[in-house]
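Most newcomers find our protein records easier to grasp once they have seen one. To make this concrete, we reproduce a full record directly below:

===
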Amino acid sequence: MRDEGIGDDAALPGLRGLLRSVRTPDFAGTVFHEVEARSALNRVPGTSQMPFTWTVNPYRGCTHACVYCLAGDTPVRLADGGSRPIAELRVGDEVLGTEPDGPGGRRRYVRTTVAAHWSTRRRAHRVSLTDGTAIVTSDEHRFLSDQHGLSDEGWRHVTPGWCRSGRRPHLRAGTVLRGPGPGPAASSSPRRSAEYGSGYLCGLVRADAARTRATAEPFPSQWVELEALARAHHLLAGLPEDGADTAAVTSARRHREVARAGTGPAAPTEPGAADLARTDPAAVADSLLTQPPRADLHPALPAPVARSVAWPREPGPGWTAGFVAGVLDACGEVADGVLRIVVAGEEMARALVAALGRLGFRVAAEPAAVPGAVRLRVRGGAAEHLRLVAAVDPAVGRVRDVCGAPVEQPASGAPRVESVRDLGVEMPMFDITTGTGDFVAAGVISHNCFARNTHTYLDLDAGKDFDSQIVVKVNVARVLERELHAPRWRREPVAMGTNTDPYQRAEGRYRLMPGVIRALGRSGTPFSVLTKGTVLARDLPEIAAAAADVPVGMDVSIALVDRALQAHLEPGTPTPSARLDLVRRITDAGLGCGVMVAPVLPLLTDSAEALDAVLGEIAAAGATGATVLALHLRPGTKEWFMGWLAREYPALVPRYERLYRGGAYLDAGYRRELGRRVGPLLARHGLDRPFPTPRTRSGGTAAPSDRPEGQLSLL
């Protein structure tokens, strides 16, 4: 969190308990007003029909309207060295992030977990880099540049603009971006090659045999890890019985098979870096092929396996990638993000150096602690390490891990911005929240993003200000714990999420809810949570622990499954599919989960077909029950919503005016008709049964009823 000079000129001078008003790098266009609240428990008015008396709201306002985002096919680097399109990431996935590592803008790579994932529609811009990479993103997205004189450690927006502290730093032609650089395309995966399996077995078996030559252990030795064994088992299962013909055998016959070649005695001295650098791949292959047969690779090695580990005279790219992967899985080790390979004997070392050279990688020889071993360090730091992982795809997780390595320029040089072009169209885009606040996308480091009418008491509007002026009760957990231990507290049910979402994206940064949940559970207070935010998945262990002591109700808001309409109505919230996945994760944690189909929009999402579709998806996700709530429009929200309706669906404005002519609530006739439509659908999908909630005012339990006051604030 960085204070950009707003604190001395607070936007809300009348707000009690204001500590500071800050603009964070994570939320462009958003100001967080951090306050020390005097109380945390809010009493619901006695005239309300709500089935609870108390609420807790850590936030006023909601950050669900996102502003960052990348195109869905943008590859994000995973913590295991692989990559996945950002659209396919899920909460809980581990990705590669960074954290500061000393002065001068130094950073190092670390593992970080996806805490939230969502999508929206944004105007698209293409950022073209000198290494050929093209990144489609929104104008608000930020990348880490290599110019540390900038504020905020070199983070730059895609396009120019203004923030409260002045003009925001932005990308220009020639801007140097930081990151490991792009890996090979998914279509060039080495495992697509038919020769890859033979090369992998050759590297794994021969490297293992060389290491265990003195003890003559059978393959696999105790050193071969389960991940490598699983891949070897899969590959060996495809080998023929002795005497049968396969592509591998045909290739071996074509190249002059050396099925029983050993690794020879250990070299008396280690090769120096200069010697290894001059290794000629063709000469190595000839020397290996012309040496006379020696001892078996492993005792009693089956003939089909022996054939599969023959040295080919002309190894292709697929065989070479497999061979390097096999040796890495047998002999690779990583310390502080540096990849080293310790092989037994000069012969194996020269074969490995030759293979790495054919793939475009360099190594340096280092002193080895074990006599007869050769210790090789892959040069180029984390960038080359990740490129090697992508190029050869080892199976063992520990040799794929670059965490701890410093963020340095790739061996080919840091990419520079060539151009930034506005594509002139809006398109679906995706973003994530991570524990470090950043992630590696397309080879460069990206920054990630993290009840309307209640804002009007601060002289803020219920529209844009509700999305961008967020009041954060930073001491809410501490104050709540004090109130819950007061002698007058009767442990009445507490509801969260009925005004503003406690698991909005800002919760990924402020982390207020774990303390709130612990305080409620320890005090014996029943509670419920209603949310549309997938950040909740982070706290499932805390919630499950509390549920062992007190009644807990879990509800997820899913208004519709139409992705296009959702992008208009809830542009910054998690997608319907992400929220359905959250329902599954809640039930998998042993908790009951109800779903609020709210708000249902008259003439837009209220047809039998639309309701049947969403209820079918909800039932398939394992929901315990569901309730359908129609849209109601309180003052403030009504003006904002009708403005949105006039822009998006102007023909519906007169009909809405008639439906809401009585005020905030829909016409009674419409509500009765909606109830008649919904009842049979709930029964058809098995969602009409009550689901667990905390005790109501009367002390019993009940499913949520169709009361307009129960819906989440729209958008």
About this structure: DSSP finds 20 helices and 28 strands in the chain. The mean pLDDT is 76.
